[in-house]
Design brief:
By secondary structure, the chain is of the alpha+beta class. 17% of the residues lie in helices and 44% in strands. It folds into two domains: 2-98 and 224-228, 3-Layer(aba) Sandwich (Rossmann fold); 102-220, Tumour Suppressor Smad4, CATH 2.60.200.
Length: 235
């Protein structure tokens, strides 16, 4: 990849992230030094780790996916794996992308938010309220990362990260089975604001970070990020 980037005349400072590294601080520091673009190198986890913290940075982002596993976002963006991703980067086809926001925790998420089966109630756009007959529901809020319903056919749902809405996939529990619980087919709900409440703390995973919550407010952030994408993008 470095050789290919050199062929295109693309060069810059290389920063290696650790678990305790704050990408927002690093990017703001490089912007003060004159950086005009940031290229994330890694997989879905790397992508989410950087942009969930640096979504407010007013700079152009690129992505070079590495590895065959855990790289679903690159397909949505139309960026191939390997050195061919450098070709996409060199063309600088730019778009503005939506960003999710956990308002009451002041956290952003760019790829996906996931609440595994939990005793929760969901209200959205101050008009609708959803709860499961058997209490438990699974909730996935997608932005860039596709939602995959792992039934026999492994259906994949790719949402549109420029439509000014977030998409929530809800799977209420249908009943208890001998080996595992049964769940209904997922329903999709486009929304602008969603409130999720639980009688007891429930786990929330957003871009790789897991916390325990009793209530979260999910909104579409006012800020959008600028990203380099490929011609074969899925939106």
């Amino acid at each position: 990849m470095e050789t290919r980037l050199t062929d295109f005349g693309i060069a810059g400072k290389i920063l290696r992230l650790q678990n305790f590294t704050d990408p927002h601080f690093l990017i703001e520091e490089e912007m003060r030094r004159g950086a005009s673009a940031v290229v994330i190198v890694g997989n879905d986890q790397t992508f989410g780790h950087v942009l969930s913290r640096a979504a407010t940075c007013d700079i152009l982002f690129g992505f070079l996916p590495v590895g065959e596993e855990n790289n679903t976002i690159s397909e949505v963006l139309g960026i191939p794996a390997g050195s061919e991703a450098c070709d996409v980067l060199s063309r600088r086809r730019k778009v503005k992308l939506d960003v999710g926001w956990i308002a009451n925790r002041h956290r952003y998420f760019i790829s996906q938010l996931h609440i595994p089966p939990s005793d929760i109630t969901v209200s959205y756009d101050e008009r609708f309220r959803v709860s499961g007959r058997h209490h438990k529901m699974e909730l996935v809020v997608c932005n860039l990362q596709p939602f995959v319903w792992k039934d026999v056919h492994k259906k994949k749902y790719v949402v549109h990260p420029q439509d000014g809405k977030l998409e929530a996939f809800l799977r209420p529990m249908a009943g208890r089975g001998i080996v595992r619980d049964k769940y209904e087919e997922p329903s999709v709900f486009p929304f602008s604001e969603m409130v999720v409440k639980g009688a007891t703390p429930f786990p929330v995973e957003a871009d790789g970070k897991v916390t325990k919550e009793t209530e979260i407010v999910i909104r579409l952030a006012k800020k959008r990020i600028e990203m380099i994408v490929g011609r074969e993008r899925k939106f």
